[in-house]
Amino acid sequence: MSMIKKSLAMIVLSATTMSAYANQCSTVRFADVGWTDITATTAVASELLKGMGYKTRTDLLSVPVTYSSLANGDIDVFLGNWMPTMEADIAKYREAGTVETVRANLEGAKYTLAVPKYVYDSGIKRFSDLVKNADKFKNRIYGIEPGNDGNRLIQSMIDQDAFGLKDFNLVESSEAGMVSQVARAVRRNQWIVYLGWAPHPMNQAVEMEYLAEGDEFFGPNYGGANIYTNVRSNYLNECKNVGQLLKNLEFSLEMESALMEDILNKKIKPSKAAQQWLKNNPQLLNKWLNGVQTLSGDDAIKAVSDYVNANA
């Protein structure tokens, strides 16, 4: 009789554990660090999950808080691990096993200092050319939000007097603030140097060029980068269905640029831009939803298709 009770207790405990995991997995918690490319990809992932019957939550956090939140279990997924420039941000968490990397979700990105083309054509082609024209740049390099990895790299150059930049100042604001400052400078034909990256509509909004010589700080090939998906420890095992989706998710430069154009310049809400993009590009659902089911175990491709067609 005691063995029967023990077996029943184990069954109840197993069912309770499975139920706890199901409840834990039914809401997927994302971090967004305020960059439009990550806002766009997070919106796409969120809309896929909503179509599959999941709930999603996105918190706007700085890069350092994103990683501490992944480590302590407050966040499940981060789609914006730019590498190699974010190595210092993720290293200690990766080594501790509190943050895991799923895969590269975008390849062929870039991330380094840039100038308008008319400044480049005037002879500013390398990092070392900046100090020779410090007065024209007003000794300023424009970055984005405080705590950002790119800002940190710029400040490191200044602190180390790399390229003779010790008298330059980092101007921190936000992605939108920096882009507005660049647009204003271009309208006035003023000189400006700033943190540039692709994918981003800034590459189409103004004629711009990336500067050489930044390999030591931003990496080779003009800050050539891949962007990775991170999750909290053991998330892929606990939430296998969402984990399979994350293993499948891969974006393109063209896709992200198009979505960012909709969000930044056409002022379309990220969720609506993602819905419209998914409706117009249904062929990707077969790849992204391969081996994936809805929360209730049904056909994910049909469910997501029905969802975006009804909402886009």
Question: What report would you give on this structure?
Answer:
- With 312 residues, this protein is an alpha/beta fold.
- The chain has 2 domains: 26-108 and 226-311, Periplasmic binding protein-like II (D-Maltodextrin-Binding Protein, domain 2, 3-Layer(aba) Sandwich); 110-223, 3-Layer(aba) Sandwich (D-Maltodextrin-Binding Protein, domain 2).
- It is 50% helix and 19% strand.
- It has helices at 2-25, 36-51, 63-71, 87-96, 117-121, 149-159, 175-187, 202-205, 215-218, 220-223, 235-238, 240-248, 253-265, 270-280, 283-288, 300-311; strands at 27-32, 55-60, 77-83, 99-116, 140-142, 169-171, 194-198, 208-210, 225-232.
- The strands form 2 sheets. Strands 1, 2, 3, 4, 7, 8 and 9 form a 7-stranded mixed beta sheet that branches. A two-stranded parallel ribbon has the order 5-6.
- Helix 6 (149-159) links the parallel strand 5 (140-142) and strand 6.
- Helix 2 packs across helix 13 and helix 14 packs across helix 16 (300-311).
- The longest helix is centred in the first third of the chain and has 24 residues, at 2-25.
- The protein is globular, with a radius of gyration of 22 Å.
- The termini are far apart.
- It holds the Pfam family OpuAC.
- Residues 27-280 form the ABC-type glycine betaine transport system substrate-binding domain.
- InterPro entries: ABC_choline_sub-bd, ABC_Gly_betaine_transp_sub-bd.
- Residues 1-22 form the signal peptide.
